[in-house]
Write a structure and sequence with these properties.
Layout (H helix, E strand, L loop, with lengths): L1 E4 L7 E2 H7 L8 E3 L7 H5 L6 H13 L5 H12 L10 E5 L2 E5 L9 H19 L3 E6 L3 H10 L5 E8 L5 H8 L6 E6 L3 H13 L1 H6 L2 E2 L6 H17 L7 E6 L4 H11 L4 E8 L4 H8 L1 E3 L19 H8 L4 H14 L1 E3 L2 H8 L2 E5 L2 H15 L5 H13 L6 E6 L7 H8 L20 E3 L3 H16 L1
Parallel strand pairs: 5-15, 6-7, 6-9, 7-8, 8-16, 10-11, 10-15, 11-14
Antiparallel strand pairs: 1-2, 1-3, 4-5, 12-13
Helix pairs in contact: 3-4, 3-10, 4-5, 5-6, 5-10, 6-7, 10-11, 16-17, 16-18
């Protein structure tokens, strides 16, 4: 399998090179040159398989030429054997033909674990074979950071620096990151927004001399391996509910677009998905795009669902690339326009094609709390604010009742206990393995919203490991 950049001016790479590269050298994102195809009989043959067995089948074509099937199987089995639910990603029924997919049974109790626990092992495997070391630099709005740190802590071939917006994550999200005191881990609280953090990461990667000197790599959803691993739970849940003989609607609370883009990938591979619903909070740039066909950035406001407090959805570029006929030059022009003006319009034909599959719905904090309260009262299912938005958006967008709705629950309610308690009157306890989280020592550094300061910090840390 070979991979191409959405900007069209970077080398075509194999999977292992894409894994280590993260962002393409032309500023684009890597996508498969061709999509693996699964027939209806291939999908039916997944019935009764474990999550890990489905993962191996779904991901094997993407790593062909870089990992053997046995190598992939060993990494996958080790990853998901450590999750706390025997089904790994269990389904809970809300109503007739409406389900919630619980994606919070990994070590950091958020959906990012399903990809990042595997990606950390992939990094270690490839780097060990090559005798190399990398410095991972990532930005997080809350959940990616803790999952990435957990996946990379104490690994011999990796140093990791995670940027998060200062005072804009939940206390649980922050503590999950900052209480990991491993020598190869550093946390930086940037006095700005998640978009500021993300812009700094991209700037460091686009500084090719700096990138090469310190062997930078990425685990954000700009890294294709993240998206690849997330495709699996779309197949697993659909197969459990009767696919390919039942059409599916998936609803995804999203800010950076990586999670819902994985659903689009599953559809490209043959999974019968008739609609992808995007759930937004008050930072509703994606919903506004699907309403009007224009992406227009606005200020970021803090909400009860901080992982979605985003105005620049990095993975959206991968979708644009597809709907512009894989025209890297056209994608580059649109991305440059958006960066310069904060506004980007899609050609009407491309926008019309997108709207046949996607729609978006927004929920402010008051509406989110109401959904959390109502859902628990009616079904007993306790939802965190992000998952509540996914459920509400899915129910609103579930127009084809012959299609089975699956709403993605992206975080354990205990990651956002204040919001859950405010909505339901009950404070969710942390799982047993995290019960002492607030007693653990923290370590993090606060930096100004300044690229130079962050660059110097990363360089100093990376030099330490190579001294």
């Amino acid at each position: 399998m070979k991979y191409v950049s959405t900007r069209g001016n970077a080398p075509v790479l194999s999977f292992d090179d894409v894994l280590l590269a993260g962002l393409a050298r032309d500023g684009g994102l890597y996508v498969p040159q061709t999509w693996p195809q699964f027939s209806a009989s291939d999908i039916r043959a997944m019935r009764g398989l474990s999550y890990a067995e489905i993962a191996i089948r779904v991901m094997a074509p993407f790593v062909e030429g870089s990992l053997t099937r046995d190598e992939l199987a060993e990494l996958v089995n080790d990853t998901y054997s450590r999750f706390t639910h025997p089904a790994v990603a269990p389904l809970k029924q809300l109503d007739s033909n409406q389900w919630v997919l619980e994606l919070f049974h990994g070590p950091t109790i958020a959906f990012k674990d399903y990809a990042l626990q595997l990606v950390g092992r992939l990094f270690d495997h490839v780097l060990t074979k090559r005798g190399q070391r990398v410095t991972i630099v990532g930005a997080t709005s809350g959940d990616t950071g803790s999952a990435a740190i957990e996946a990379c802590r104490d690994r011999d071939s990796i140093d990791i620096v995670i940027l998060h917006p200062h005072n804009r994550t939940s206390a649980v999200q922050r503590k999950q990151m900052t209480t990991v005191l491993s020598d190869n881990v550093r946390n930086v609280a940037v006095e700005g927004t998640f978009d500021d953090c993300q812009d700094m990461v991209k700037a460091l990667f686009n500084d090719h001399d700096f990138r090469d000197t310190y062997h930078l790599s990425a685990v954000n959803s700009i890294n294709w391996a993240r998206v690849m691993a997330q495709i699996v739970y779309y197949f697993a849940s659909a197969v459990a509910l009767g696919s390919p003989d039942v059409p599916m609607t998936f609803s995804v609370p999203t800010g950076n677009f990586g999670n819902v883009f994985a659903g689009f990938c599953a559809r490209q591979m043959g999974l019968p998905i008739d609609k992808l619903v995007v759930g937004s909070n008050s930072n509703d740039i994606l919903t506004r795009f699907f309403e009007k066909g224009v992406m227009e950035a606005d200020g970021v406001v803090p909400t009860l669902s901080p992982s979605m407090d985003i105005q620049v959805s990095s993975n959206f570029e991968r979708l644009v690339f597809h709907y512009l006929g894989n025209d890297g030059k056209a994608v580059g022009q649109l991305m440059d326009e958006f960066r310069a003006t904060g506004r980007m319009g899609m050609p009407q034909g491309a926008y019309g094609a997108m709207r046949e599959l996607f729609e978006g719905h927004r929920y402010d904090d008051e509406q989110t709390l109401a959904v959390m309260k109502t859902t628990q009262a009616k079904t007993g299912e306790m939802l965190d604010p992000h998952s509540a938005i996914g459920v509400a958006a899915g129910i609103k967008g579930h127009s084809n009742k012959t299609s089975t709705l699956v709403a993605l629950a992206t975080a354990h309610p205990a990651k956002f206990p204040d919001a859950v308690e405010k909505a339901t009157g009950a404070r969710p306890p942390l799982p047993a393995h995290m019960a002492d989280l607030f007693d653990r020592e923290e370590r993090f550094d606060v930096l100004a919203n300044d690229l130079g300061a962050v660059r110097d910090y990363v360089a100093t840390f990376a030099k330490r490991s190579r001294a």
